[in-house]
Structures are given as C-alpha cells and as structure tokens.
Amino acid sequence: MRLPKHKTRIVCTIGPASQASGTLERMIRQGMDVARLNLAHGDIESHRSTIAAIRTAAELVGRRVSLLADLPGPKLRVGRLPGDQIELERGQLVRLVAFANETPGEPAKQTGDETVRRSRIQEVPFDLPALPASLKPGDDVFLDDGLIQLRIRNDPAPTRSRGSDGRGHLAKVLLGGTLRSRDGIALPGIHLDIPAFTAPDRELLAFALAEGVDAIGVSFVEGPEDVARVREAATALGGDPFIIAKIERAQAMERIESVLALADGIMVARGDLGVDIPLERIAVAQKTLIRRANAAGRPVITATQMLESMTVHRRPTRAEVTDVTNAILDGTDCVMLSEETAMGRHPVEAVATMRRIAETTERHLSTPQPPSSDVISVAGVLAQQAAVMADQLNVPYIIAPTETGATARAIARVRPRAWIIAFSPSEETCRRLQFSRGVYPVFVRREVDWHGIARRWWHEQGLKPGLAVLIQDNRRLEVIDLTLQASSRPATPPVSAVQEDVQ
Questions:
Q1: Are residues 18 and 58 both part of a single domain?
Q2: Residue 246 is among the residues annotated as catalytic for this protein
Q3: CA-based nearest residue to 143, from 269, 270, 271, 15
Q4: Phi then psi dihedrals of residue 460, to 5 deg
Q5: Annotated catalytic residue within 36, 55, 64, 417
C-alpha cells in the first residue's frame, strides 16, 4: 500500500448510492478510509452483504478500510407514513400519535378543539409505544434534523385511528417541508426516560461483533455510563470494539470529560446536536469538542452536512468547502460524509472533493503544538519531542512501533506535520489507527528489528533517501538514516513479507 496524500481520515456512510462493488472501489481509490454502516436503516442481511462488499473492494484496491457500525440508540423516529412521505405546510394542524411502527389509518374528524372540529387532521405517527408523558402545550418538536418544526397546541386527546395508543397531541406546523417515514424526531429540553443502549441495540451489537466490525458508534450518549453499558455488553459477547461516543445531546457536552475518559473516540454529530442546542452555538460547540478530544488523545469525527449539496450537485458550495477546511484546522481527525455517499447522486465525486480539500488544507497547518492537559507523562513528553524534532529537522516520517496504538495516538495528538508510520503486530490495532489523523498503520507478523524494517519499508515505498525519527518503547528517541545500503541487515525480511493482505 502506498501512502495517501491526505492525513485527515475520510469516513463515508454506505447506502443505496454506494453499495455497488464498482462504486465502493472508486470511493476507496479516491480516499475513503472508514466505511460507516447506519444500523438504523436496513436489515441484518443487507448489512452483512454490504460488509462483505466493502471488504472485497478494499482487497481489490489494496487499501485498508475500517468498518464503523452505528447503533440506532433511542432515536425517536417517524413511523410509517402513507406513501412513505407527506407534505406539511406552515400553519397546518397535525395530530402526533404513537403507533409503534404501524401505518396510521385514515384521519378521523376530531371533536376536542373548536378550531379543528369537523376538519380532517393529518396524523404524524411516532414510532413509540406511547408519546412522552412530559410533552406539554408550547413545546417544540423538530423533524428531519430540525428542518421541520411543530409546536404542541394541547394536552393529549383521544384519537380513533387504527393502531394508535388512543392518545394524541395537536400541533401546529411552524416550519413545513417534506416528511418521510423514519425521519428523526427531536424534542429539545424534553427528558426521555429511555437508555442510550436499547434491547434492539444489543442484538445489533452482537451482529456487528460477529461480523468483525472494527468500531461501534453509540448514539445519544448522555454520560459515561452509556459508554460503559455498551462496553460491558460487548465484553459479555466476547468482543472488545473501538467505541465512538456520538455527541448529539447537550447533557453529553456538559459531561464531555468523563465521556472521553471511557470512550475510545467521539463523533461531533452536528445534526441532532444542532437541534438539541441552539443552532447559533453549534460552531463553538464543535470547536470545543475537537479541542477536548485532542487534549485527551482521542480521535474525533466531525459529521453531518459537510458537503450536503453534493447529494444533488457535482460541486459543493463555498460555505461547505470552508466548513470542511475549518474542521481540519480545528484539529478533527476525521471528516464524515453522510447522505452525500449513502443516498447522493455523486458519491465518488464527494469523496474526491473531500480528499482534495484535506490535501490543500493540510499544507497550511501550523507548527506542532502540545494540547492543553493537566496530565504529564514520560510517554506524552517523548511523543511531543518526537513531533517537534521531526518538524525542526524537516523530517517527513516518525517511525512508531506500537502494540496497542497508544504510542502513535500520543504523537498524533500533537499534530506533527510528519507522517506517523505505526508498525504493529496487531491487525486490530492497525484498523483502529485508521481513525487517527496522520497515522499510517503497517501490519507486521512478528517482532522485528525496527531499523531494518523501517529502511525496507522506505525502499518499497520508492521514497528518496532521507532521515526519520524513531521512537521505541516510550523511552528512546533517535534520528535514523533510512537510506537502504548494502550493509543493511540481510536477515530482516522485506515489509511485504511480514505484512498481511488487506482484508
């Protein structure tokens, strides 16, 4: 595998627009590093087929692609709508009802409100056994990532539609739009007594672990206990996945330090987070979360609407390009494509655009700076010195042998300009390092002489003679000459002989 030109990782959501093997291959060639499966959509068999297709495409291209599976969590969703979508107009009155995933029947005439007496009210089904008891008049309800806004008009009243729980809320449409089956529902400020890790999540977690997925995304995290529940369940199932806590609730932001202490990484899920907190706060929230994750040495993914216009158009807006650029300058490890690659018309072009933005932005990154942290350790100081040494000597590579990935991530948190070449005897570690910016993992089958293997890797990459910084055992730092000479240790096998095939 050749070094890519971009250090920022690109996460792509796989869906109907990108499931074909040819499309997956082109996306990988254009720079996809992580393939994301949204387990809230589709069934087990379709996800299994997608996983197999991703692995086959990665093997054909010859690049490592890690798999991230997002658990649905307790996200409230619209139930099945007649025709799978309806149009809601500003000023229209609708009835919110609980259907538990049944299609509502024909709207009946309502008698509980003079304004709507003898009228036919469009029902909006919530995929829940019962509506939240805490909903009250004046509360706002947001649908489809906040694009549609409703306001509750009255307390629960009877509704006679088939399948309903018999109670419904009358609401007025403040912001209209096209509402589709399974669109998300957000209730800012409304407490929902629902755990972040649900019974359906447990079944999907078992499936993901059985399929060998590399990372698990935990949705609607409110605190560290939500991460702990998923980790405990994974352990009970015999797994130990890389856990990404999705930050999409205000409570998680307030407890971000404790969440970072238990999670392996976080995702700034701007869609739901931008509904749960005032929209004008989302940019500052993103910068804060990235900074906290950098300081903790945890990979961070910035997600939602990054190049959304490319769902339809071949070129993004200037504002979208600026958004991606600023996320990279802020220090994000990964940038993520959602609808652009899952449902969009131009998934391959979206990946290529993201890669070009990353390549251009990375040329303008500043000198490595140690992130603010109260914790001082030998490993942390050594990692910082490795980054500074590489920058001052204009050395393009830092060689970091690592068992667990901790050494490579410690260096990555300083954001050096040099590539971090992480030799590891663990393929699992290599796949997890796909989430860290500027880290290029190389799998080796056994313990080797790092000087020799580094020289041979350098030669196989076709790089010009030069120097590299080598960090070993978190206690030794040196500058080595990677020029391949005849006197180099002949017993050291070439990297291609100790590197596994890409899965």
A1: yes
A2: yes
A3: 271
A4: -65, -25
A5: 36
Of 50, 302, 304, 492, which residue is the catalytic one? Answer: 304
Instruction: Print the domain residue range for 207.
Output: 9-73+195-362
The pTM of this model reads 0.86
Pairing of strands 167-175, 157-158: antiparallel
What's the pLDDT tens digit per position in 171-199? 999 999 999 988 888 888 777 777 889 99
Residue-by-residue DSSP string for 87-152: EE-TT-EEEEEE-SSPPP-PPPBB-S-GGGBTSBPEEEEESSSS--TT--TT-EEEETTTTEEEEE
- Same domain flag for 358 and 405: no
Assign 334 to helix, strand or coil: strand
DSSP state of 162: T
75 as an active site residue: the answer is: no
- Find how far residue 229's CA is from the centre of its chain: 19
29, 77, 180, 287: which is the annotated catalytic residue? 77
489 counts as catalytic:
no
Q: What is the pLDDT of residues 274-306, one digit of tens each?
A: 988 999 999 999 999 999 999 999 999 999 999
Q: Does residue 339 sit in helix, strand or coil?
A: helix
Q: What is the pLDDT of residue 500?
A: 37
Q: How far is CA 343 from CA 86, 192, 311, 351, in A?
A: 19, 30, 7, 13
